[in-house]
Design goal:
Length: 238
Amino acid sequence: MSDSTSVTIMFIGAHHDDNELMAGTMMRHIEAGWRVVSVVMTDGCWTPDDVSDANIERRNNESRAAAKLLDAIPVFLGFKEWGFRNSKAAADAVVKTIFDHRPRVIVTHPPLDYHFDHMETCKCVTDASYRCILRSEEGEPFETHPALYYSDTWFVPFTPDVYVDVSQYAQIKQDTLAAHKSQLPDGGQIEDTMIEYEMVRARFRGIESGYKYAEAFVRANKLQNVRMGGLLGESEAR
């Protein structure tokens, strides 16, 4: 694991298996010396067969197992799953988490998504991100405000402006998703599960970008926080 002085990227997902959809990007950053923090917003009370508080520790343990495969740091905020709302309490918790870990980059769900919890998490993280500009009582002000990225989503329109080549991490993507056994059918089949959906999407994004597999993102635009270039042609070089 990178030491505490390493630059940090933080992934904030609504559910326990959401951040592992970007496991390739996580692994690329870890191998480049970054510290990866994986934040889960909701408590994990839901499985396909049952909704109960008895599932919470099981799903936390699944996320810990996935994080161990990646050498990432898991964080659990524990807000109620299915019906999560962006609230002051939730935004306060995200602000505190950001100041605790001081990431250079934050990644969360996009504003338009197929799942209500995802969209409310996006609102919450976006709100908290702005509060890190406006407020500093939670800790020392950031020298450079964290960049915010929205991750790819299933089943609804999403137009990326950043692609990450994850061709060499196809197996780790499948392994980290497979750690979430409570979300998969017994028997370990991949067809018609989140593993198949994610690998199909990663292949599609790879075809778009010229790689075998890719993960896709959009950078959230903020005043005085855009990407600047000299010559437009410089962006064409890989």
